[in-house]
Amino acid sequence: MPATTALLNSLTRQVNHWLQAAIRLSAFDNLASANAWYGVNHSISAQLKSSFKQSIDEVIALGNSLTGQLNNNAGEQELRMLKRGLLQLRSKYLKTEETINFYTVAINSRTTPGLSAILRACDVLCLKSMEALLRPLGKQSPLVLTYMDKGIGASILKAGLTLWDGNTSTIATIKVTYHNISRPTALIHETGHQVAHILNWTTELSEALAKGLSKHPEAVAHVFSSWASEIAADAFAFVHTGYAATASLNDVISGEPFSVFSYHRNDPHPISYVRLLLNTAMCRAFYGDGEWNNLEDSFKNEYDINLVNYPSVKLIRMCVEAIPEAVDIILKKSYSAFGNRSLSQLISPEMVSPRELEKLAYVAGPSLFTSHAWINKECIRLLALNGYKIGTGKGNLPALYKQQEEWMTMLGFAVELN
Q1: Which of 149, 205, 344, 399 is surrounded by the fewest CB atoms within 10 Å?
Q2: What is the CA radius of gyration of the chain?
Q3: Euclidean distance between CA atoms 241 and 375, whole angstroms
Q4: Whether the Cβ atoms of residue 202 and residue 192 lie closer than 8 Å to each other
Q5: Whole-number Cα distances in Å, 307 to 239, 251, 293, 312, 317
Q6: How far apart are the first and last CA of the chain?
Q7: In what order do the strands lie in the sheet with 143-149?
Q8: Along the 418 residues of the chain, how does pLDDT read in single tens digits?
Q9: How remote is the C-alpha of 3 from its chain's centroid?
Q10: Do residues 361 and 368 touch, judged by C-beta distance below 8 A?
Q11: 3-state SS string over the chain?
Q12: Number of other CB atoms surrounding residue 346 within 10 Å
């Protein structure tokens, strides 16, 4: 067989292969079960399917163009140029597949009606948390799709970022972990990332920390500034859920001592030891003394900095000295991102103080966890209330977890899907 004919056959076969793969990928109902699709808000599923179709259409258009050129009696020189087109087709398909796979895995986590309802409740919690800050500033909140997966911590693929296929994400996609689904304050940390991205608060906060902590050693101002993105998200979770976020954070970061004390230069997360103390200091700054003091004492006893000799110890001690000033900069300083107001002015942490949460429970009575009206209106404060009770480690903890699951299920089933 002549070399030109062999090359033509090979290219034709490969182009057809990727074309057929793209066509199969376009059968969206085969990617996720009907029940899983039904468990997603109609606006989200419509946006996702539209985005998927756009990406797949681009792959198919490129494949059809190559097929036309191959059928046009291309010579050896042209065939070798078309080989580069084949590689582009392959790459474009794989990037599209990566994008679609990410979302369909997320959708397929809504495997049963009950779990689907809980995740829709998570969608609502995320959306309400963002609207509380963005709406007063005249900004629109993106749609949210939450999903369950393994691991210790939550994560987010923010709306407004470029996806693998080159398109821009229009939906904030947030992972909640299996172990944390019954006290998901981490969701609010992740929406804090989204809000900071929309408002460009991270940059402003980073500069404010670098400047505001300048009287401390240069290394302190530098690391706090480099941690601005995670600090912003922690602060957002705190103003929404108070001590509940701090207690949940403790359980996530409490691991082996080396991980609690370790410092990684390019890691946006604060050193875990400093991070926990920063969050307990936020509680003290607004609520005075309380359960967070006991949590901090227990944490310091469990991870006694006087008994370790990690290279980070000196830096940690210096950072701890700067925490009170850092709290003021984070929560009480005015920012242009917030219309020249502070975060605590826009969302008052006092609304989720133990006193206010107790007042909410007293006023609403037993209907707080059974009335759709109360649940829909106060779902974020319910998250804070249950999280506070669980965080104290007192009372009937299994019953509190069950109560959280029950009201979230009610909230999820109340969501209008179509």
Answers
A1: 399
A2: 25
A3: 15
A4: no
A5: 34, 22, 21, 13, 13
A6: 59
A7: 143-149, 171-177, 155-157
A8: 465 787 888 888 999 999 999 999 998 888 888 888 888 988 999 999 999 999 999 999 999 999 998 888 667 778 778 889 999 999 999 999 999 999 999 999 998 899 999 999 999 999 999 999 999 999 999 999 999 999 999 999 999 999 999 999 999 999 999 999 999 999 999 999 999 999 999 999 999 999 999 999 999 999 999 999 999 999 999 999 999 999 999 999 999 999 999 999 999 999 999 999 999 999 999 999 999 999 999 999 999 999 999 999 999 999 999 999 999 999 999 999 999 999 999 999 999 999 999 999 999 999 999 999 999 999 999 999 999 999 999 889 999 999 999 999 999 998 865 4
A9: 53
A10: yes
A11: CCHHHHHHHHHHHHHHHHHHHHHHHCCHHHCCCHHHHHCCCHHHHHHHHHHHHHHHHHHHHHHHHHHHHHCCCCCHHHHHHHHHHHHHHHHHHHHHHHHHHHHHHHHHCCCCHHHHHHHHHHHHHHHHHHHHHHHHHCCCCCEEEEEEECCCCCEEECCCCECCCCCECCEEEEEEEHHHCCCCCHHHHHHHHHHHHHHCHHHHHHHHHHHHCCCCCHHHHHHHHHCHHHHHHHHHHHHHHCHHHHHHHHHHHCCCHHHHHCCCCCCCCCCHHHHHHHHHHHHHHHHCCCHHHHHHHHHHHHCCHHHCCCCCHHHHHHHHHHHHHHHHHHHHCCEHHHCCECHHHHCCHHHHCHHHHHHHHHHHHHHHHCCHHHHHHHHHHHHHHHHHHHHHCCCCHHHHHHHHHHHHHHHHHCCCCC
A12: 16
Sign of the CA dihedral with 268 first, then 272, 277, and 279 last:
positive
pTM equals 0.93
Tokens of 32: 């996720």
Cβ-contact 278, 327 below 8 angstroms:
yes
Chain centroid to Cα 108, Å, comes to: 18
Q: Which of 276, 331, 284, 326 is nearest to 305 (CA)?
A: 276
The two tokens of residue 379 are 């779902």
